[in-house]
Write a structure and sequence with these properties.
Structural class: mainly alpha
Order of helices and strands: EEHHEHHEHHHHH
Bound molecules: zinc ion
Mean pLDDT: 91
Helix content: 40-55%
Distance between the termini: 30 Å
Radius of gyration: 17 Å
Largest sheet: 2 strands, antiparallel
Shape: globular
Number of helices: 9
Number of strands: 4
Low-confidence stretches: none
Strand order of the largest sheet: 1-2
Length: 169
C-alpha cells in the first residue's frame, strides 16, 4: 500500500490483528520483493517460521509459483520452508482469480485450517492505516518510518488489550 507520497509498505498481520511485519517497498510491489521480505522475516524469526501454517496474500498464486520455482526453492532452509508453505489467496480477492491453477491450488476455502479465519485482516489494517495518508504526505522518509512504527505499536497495544479482555491472551 502507498502512504506518504512516495512510500510504499508491505505489512504482515496475524489473523488476531497484531502487525508482525512492516517493511518499505521500493518502487512497486513486485513478487520478488515480497518474497525477499518474507524470506528475511522468517529467516530471522525462527519460532514464527516453525509455527507457520498459511500465508494469505492477494496475489498468493504468483507468490506460490515464485516460492516453488526450482531455481530457488532449495537455496536456503527458509526458501525450503516457503516452498513447502500453504500460500493462498485471501478470501476477499479470491473471486478475482479465475485461472484453473489458482482455483485448484490457492483456494482459501478448501483448507479447514482457514475456516473462521479472517484472511482479510491485512485489508482491514490497511484501511485503518490509510486514514493517515494525509498526515504523512509531507513527511521525510525518516519521520515517516518513525511515525509508522509508532502507529503500529499503538495499534498492537490496542489489539493486545482487546485479546486480553476477551481472554485470548
Ligand atoms: Zn491467481
Amino acid at each position: 500500500m502507498a502512504l506518504a507520497n512516495e512510500f510504499r509498505i508491505l505489512a504482515g498481520v496475524r489473523p488476531c490483528g497484531i502487525i508482525v511485519l512492516v517493511s518499505e517497498l521500493f518502487s512497486c510491489e513486485s513478487i520478488s520483493q515480497v518474497y525477499a521480505i518474507l524470506h528475511e522475516y522468517f529467516r530471522s524469526n525462527d519460532s514464527v517460521a516453525h509455527s507457520l501454517e498459511f500465508i494469505c496474500y492477494d496475489d498468493g498464486c504468483h507468490l506460490r509459483k515464485y516460492s516453488c520455482n526450482p531455481c530457488r526453492k532449495d537455496e536456503t532452509p527458509t526458501a525450503k520452508l516457503l516452498a513447502a508453505s500453504e500460500i493462498v489467496i485471501d478470501k476477499m480477492h479470491f473471486s478475482g482469480h479465475t485461472d484453473k491453477w489458482c482455483l485448484a491450488t490457492c483456494n482459501p476455502n478448501v483448507f479447514s485450517g482457514l475456516n473462521n479465519v479472517d484472511t482479510e485482516i491485512c485489508e482491514q489494517t490497511f484501511a485503518w492505516l490509510s486514514r493517515y495518508c494525509h498526515v504523512t504526505r509531507h513527511m521525510t522518509r525518516n519521520t515517516f518510518v518513525f511515525f509508522l512504527l509508532y502507529l503500529c505499536d499503538l495499534h498492537n497495544r490496542r489489539e493486545e488489550t482487546k485479546l486480553r479482555n476477551s481472554h485470548y491472551l
